[in-house]
Design brief:
The protein has 7 helices and 7 strands, in the order βαβαβαβαβαβααβ. The protein is an alpha/beta fold and about 250 residues long. A 7-stranded parallel beta sheet has the order 3-2-1-4-5-6-7, sandwiched between helices.
Length: about 250
């Protein structure tokens, strides 16, 4: 499905991350991949994973630094000349801002969460725009239901994801004339490195499993298959959408 296409995936943290599941699905579908890492600790996890997929392009990138973003896409331009798919699976908030009351979010905590989790999509899209192949380019980001409704403990990250979803729609409008599509997947709760920082996450998993129409949680692999759909020719008519992969939880009202 992705034979001959080139994709860069931001946000692989370890072998439990959704971004890693997406990278694996893309590799199986025939894509040529590049992965990124934010620091040395993450690099030590990412490089063995890249080797397992036969990925030779592993690039440093702190998405909060414009110079890093430019350098990353300069490297992509030098190696590939163009780009078909960009996956943005990056989010961060200070641990103390994911506990207690949203009311107590600090100004710096708010700025940091919005910068890394939402503005980074804009920065990556802008840098990637000259490389994205017209009429088949695709940008995909990951969001969560906490952007739409209050999820206790999600706090400032919910606001950041709401900004991310709005940014996705505006980017879809801006890039639409060139045929580049921009979409988001709203995944149900999945055990990842990021979710470990959310207070009461185990309770969230149980609640979701009990109340979702399918009466279960979803897997990273199921999210990855949805990403494959949105990033391939199967999703060529879809842009500006939030696709829920959450066992139907988002449709339920109590």
């Amino acid at each position: 499905m992705l034979a001959g296409k080139k994709a860069i995936v931001f946000g692989v943290a370890n072998d439990h991350s959704i971004a890693w599941a997406i990278a694996q699905a893309f590799a199986r579908a025939g894509a040529t991949l590049a992965l990124t890492y934010v620091n040395e600790a993450i690099e030590r996890r990412v490089r063995p994973l890249a080797e397992a997929l036969g990925v030779s392009t592993v690039l440093p990138c702190d998405v909060s630094r414009d110079e890093d973003v430019r350098a990353t896409f300069d490297a992509v331009r030098e190696q590939w000349g163009g780009l078909d798919i960009l996956v943005h699976a990056v989010a961060f908030a200070q641990r103390e801002d994911l506990k207690g009351r949203f009311l107590d979010t600090s100004r710096e905590g708010f700025r940091l969460a919005l910068d890394v989790s939402a503005y980074s999509l804009i920065a990556l899209a802008r840098a990637a725009e000259p490389l994205l192949v017209p009429r088949r380019g695709s940008i995909l980001t990951l969001t969560y239901f906490g952007a739409e409704k209050v999820v206790a403990g999600y706090n400032v990250m919910g606001v950041a994801k709401a900004a991310l979803e709005a940014s996705m729609r505006y980017l879809a409008w801006d890039l639409g004339p060139s045929g580049v599509r921009v979409n988001a997947i709203s995944a149900g709760p999945i055990r990842t490195l990021s979710s470990a920082g959310i207070g009461g996450f185990k309770t969230m998993l149980h609640h979701h499993e009990e109340r979702a129409p399918l009466r279960r949680n979803v897997s990273a692999e199921e999210v990855a298959r949805a990403a494959l759909y949105l990033s391939s020719e199967l999703g060529e008519g879809v842009t500006g959408e939030v696709l829920h992969v959450d066992a139907g939880y988002n449709i339920v009202g109590l």
